[in-house]
Amino acid sequence: GAVVSQHPSRVICKSGTSVKIECRSLDFQATTMFWYRQFPKKSLMLMATSNEGSKATYEQGVEKDKFLINHASLTLSTLTVTSAHPEDSSFYICSGEGPGAIQETQYFGPGTRLLVL
Amino acid sequence: RKEVEQDPGPFNVPEGATVAFNCTYSNSASQSFFWYRQDCRKEPKLLMSVYSSGNEDGRFTAQLNRASQYISLLIRDSKLSDSATYLCVVNKAGGTSYGKLTFGQGTILTVHP
Hints:
- The complex is a heterodimer.
- Chain A is mostly beta strands.
- In chain A, about 0% of the residues lie in helices and about 50% in strands.
- Chain A has no helices and eleven strands.
- Chain A has strands at about 5, 10-15, 20-25, 30-40, 45-50, 55-60, 65-75, 75-80, 90-95, 105-110, 110-115.
- Chain B is built from no helices and eleven strands.
- In chain B, the strands form two sheets. In chain B, strands 2, 4, 5, 9, 10 and 11 form a six-stranded mixed β-sheet that branches.
């Protein structure tokens, strides 16, 4: 199946700093990428949808100025958590879909575990 | 009401047992349905899509009842390796992307020797 990578896999940072997470589709063109967040013992919650070359669409309750998403190419999307705070500590997972992947199938990255101290 | 509801379990079953998971969804316009499995501290992986006619993949059988907005997953002859969290996933209606997925909170399954 199609492969999506994420970097870093784990990050610990101080409160107030910004953290950038990269999501790459390795063997297909991800025309659409999705960013999810999962708190412990909770379900994945969609944060935003991004289409290559256009602005991301954020879900209700997700601050677009805090969670900056860039999808400048068909194989790379980035999520920047600006001025991170302890309540932003979570498991962030991206997924991609597009030509070269099976239609209606999302391929998930391995996730990034963020801990804000 | 949650968009996708599952019994969180946990289900603890012996090897070889048959176990069934249920899921309901609230949006009658939902288009696509899936079961994913998620291992501890890992990303979710697609287990199978769910079709109205019901579908089977080896030991796994999925059923969909659109009238009742109900989805099920049956696992026969459970293996230790089936231990995971099983996520009921529904495609969010609306938009042009097929990918706006809504996840249930997951049902935890532990298969013991």
